Every structure is written in structure tokens, then in C-alpha cells.
Amino acid sequence: MIKFFLLSFLIFLFSHADSSIDDKNVYYTSQHFRAIAGIAYQNSTSIQTLATKFLDAAEDAWNKEVVELGFLAPRNTQNKLIDIYLGNKSAYDYENGIYVSISSAYAGYAWYYLSDRTPYFVMNSSMTDEQIKVTVAHEFCHTIQYAYFLDDNIAETKWRKNIWWLEATAVLMEDEVYDDINDYINFLSPFFSYSYQSFEIYNGSHEYSMVIFAKYIREKYGMQIIQESLSAIETSGDKGYFEILDDLLAKNYNSSMKSALNEFTLWVTNAKEYFHEGSSYPPLRHYKATDNITIQKGGIEVVDNLLSGWNMVTLSDSNIHDLNISNLKILWSYENGTWKNSVQNQINEVNSSSGYWAKVDENSSLYYTYFDSSVQDISKLDKSWSFVGTTKEFYTNTLANQEPLVIWQYVNETWFVYSNNVDIQQKIEILNYPTLNKIVQFSAYWVHKLN
What we know:
By secondary structure, the chain is α+β, with helices and mostly antiparallel strands. The protein is 33% helix and 23% strand.
């Protein structure tokens, strides 16, 4: 019994060795951090235990993100500790003259003292052990990110268009520090449900789901490019991280955001095959061409527009081997009066302004990205047959004032025809061809301009 009390006393004494108080707070310190609660909790073993959990998680994050991965240490940490306020525990912030609180809706946040830009955390005190770990790893990454911003006076527009990458990489760090928790998977749904939306959307959920793109960058190119992107923000002018990544991919990795989006689409379409933990990811939502979705900046879209048999479609700007069209039997193109096909390896590069005949033996999908944006100016086509693709929906009656032409399109084993020439349109109707009123998104059509 004496031994038990002696051991308990020693543990108590050791755990309090790095604690101190003033007239408002009790402080618990580790090598790089200081957890803070109100003085009323001075003798609370539960608060001491909680503070230790936060400090341990913070040191884990430091060791991974700064020591191992090589990111910049947060500002002023060569001679100051980073404060971790235990939210709603009467901790007093002397600089701002407030008792620190946090809404129950938030796990935590990171900011910095305006006097010298030293960062600090405010953490929700009601989290589980796993939530503490990933939240600290996330918020610590934000304190690192602040170290790359030399100028605090960042325009609101620039800040907003860059939040997506700051949050994406912070969520990424959760999994880098604690790979066995995988809490980041809970953030993925907004992207997988609305993949066509802009990378730069800031709405409280989408920016966190962009961890999936950070995961792709990490697993494809490594951590170095993420560090390079943070370093480049101060010299980028009006460019955001989307453009910065494009520049870095071109300069150092023989790629581009256009190429990366094509490959990224394959990864998220077949997540189990490409991502290390992809078997746990949600399925990517598919769309129909008739949904007429506008792909926003950085967005991608998988479209179920291939029916079993022959289809007239346009394709994403890419190499044919990157399209990953399941069950493709043959692909034909027609350009400058010449037919080419995929079976004889005559087609290498494809683009979204051209039309293609694609034959598949069962229903299948195609993908498109933000960079696939084409609407042919029909007035500039030669006075001959042209096989044209479009990524935009339009109505054929908008061509009424163009020079005489005929448009043919094959849909569901039926030919549809339109002409802006009244006499020809009447003949078409006599021959019982259904009128082509609308060209749907991501389809293709034949145009014959009449002499």
C-alpha cells in the first residue's frame, strides 16, 4: 500500500513538473507548446490529463510536419511556445483581454497574436482522443502555413480563392501525422458528390473535401511540391494556388494542371485502384449529358453518355490511352477529309472540339475537365463535311441566320436532322427524319455547309 501511494505521488509530481500558474491561468508546457486553462482548474486532474493529450498531439504534429517532412517551423517558435487554449475552460488571453471560448460547432482553430504574429490554438475541450489528434495536426499545419505568408495584409479576394489549398493540405496533414485514424475520409463527400464545382469554392465543406486533390498530388508527386506551393504564394502576385501548382508542375515535374486533372479524374473514378486508401472512398457521382452541367474552375465530370453500340461524342483533351473507356471496340475520327481509327493506332491525341464515333459493347462513361471547353464557330467551317464536337449545349434554331447548312446527329440508333434552309428542311420532314432541335452537351454532330 505504501509503495502504491509513493508511486502515485511520483507520477503526480512528474506530471506537474512542467506546470505553472498566474492569477488567471494554469499552464502546462511541453517542448514547443503551452496548454492553458483557467486558474480554477489548477487542481483538476481531468484538465491536466486533457492538457497532456493536446500537448502530446501537438508534439507529434511538430515532429512529423517540421522535423520529418521539412516544413517551416511556425513564426517565433525559436524562442516562444505556441499557446493552446482549452476552450470554455476560463483560459484568459492577456493580449486580447478576453476569456477564451469556442462554439460547440467547431473542433478548433488557429490564429496568431497581432503583436508579434506568434500563432496560437483555441481547441474544443469536448473532443474524443482521436478528434484531438487530428484536429491538432490540422491546426498546427495552419500555423505552418502562416509562416509562409510574409504579408498579413492579404486582400480578401486572394485569401478566399486560396483557402481551398490551405484547408486541403491541413486535412492532408491529419493523415500524415496519424495515418491509422483516417478521419479525412469523412470530408470527401462534397467533392465526390459535386466534382464539377470549382476548386476555389469556399462554403465550409467543399474546401475540406479538396483533400482528395492534395492526396493525389502527394501520392503522385510527393510532398516537395506542396512545400514549393506554400513558398511561392508571396511571389505569385494575383495568382492563386491553382495557377501556382500549374506553374510548378510545368517547371519541375514535366506536367500541368491540365494533364494533372486528366489523371486525377482517372484516380477518383477508380479510387480503389490508384489511391492507397481508395477502397474506403465514396463513389464518384456520374451525370448525364442532358444534365447540362457547367464545369467550373478545376472541376471534373464523369458523364454516362456512351450507350451500347455506336455513339457520336466529343472527348476530353488528352491522349487516347488516358481516356480509360471501358468496353471500347473502336473509335473513329474524321478530319480534313480523312478517316482514322483506334484499332490501327491512327489516333493518338483527341480533343473536345472534334467529333468521334465510338463503339462500345455496353453502356459506359466518359470524363471531362474544366479545360475541355469548346463550341465550334460553325461560320468558320469549310464548305464541306465537318465532324464537330461540343462541350456546350445549344439549340439549332440559333443557326437560323447562318449561311445554308444541314446538321446530322445519330442518337439512340436514330438519325436526327436540321437545316436552316426552308426547302431542305421540308424535304427532311417528308423523308420522316425527326428534327434535330438541340445539340446536347458532350455530343458530336455532322455539319454540311451548302454551296
